[in-house]
Amino acid sequence: MMDARPIIPSGWHFVAHHCTTDGFTTISPLSRIDYPVRYIIIDFDCSVRLEHGQPHLLRNFGGRDGEPPEYKTREPYDPFKIDVFTLGNVFLKDFYQKYEGLDFLTTLIEFMKTLDFRQRPDARMAMRYWLNIRAHIDVGRARWRLQKRKETMGERVLYDTVALAREGVHRMKRMVTGEV
Q1: Which superkingdom is the protein from (predicted)?
Q2: Residue/partner pairs of 98-104 with CB below 8 Å, 24 or more apart
Q3: What's the whole-model pTM score?
Q4: Residue range 24-40, pLDDT digits in tens
Q5: What are the domain boundaries of the chain?
């Protein structure tokens, strides 16, 4: 779940999410790249609570993502490594397969989706791997909009023009405030 307060500081209607609290005025959210949002993990109905020091190889199977190989073998598994696999699947299906220009995610996704959970990274290792990748991504490229794979040429021209204008405004603000 996303905490949208940074991009919609005036709030939104509880039913008409595209409107302000009055239910009529259309919202114009601020850009996430300039006003970072937080994501909150929810839906703990499939979770397992482990006490400190308790062995964490489990046998109870289930979860939102049915693809982890551990579920097919029915052998004890590490739930934390399933979390890493599942997040790798989210990166694959919700970003890499839907948007252009995310080739830099390929090795991270493959690493996070390593079939043998004993060889799969834990969350800390996956994060270090990501931070290493991120350090080599051009800032301008990182700030650019996500381009859907199935955009028409007209959509691409329109959205790229808007993105270019936004990036120009952002860079001008940084020059004026001396952040360059």
Answers
A1: Eukaryota
A2: 98/148, 98/149, 99/146, 99/147, 99/148, 99/149, 100/147, 100/148, 100/149, 101/141, 101/144, 101/146, 101/147, 102/146, 104/133, 104/136, 104/137
A3: 0.77
A4: 999 988 888 888 899 88
A5: 1-43, 56-137, 147-180
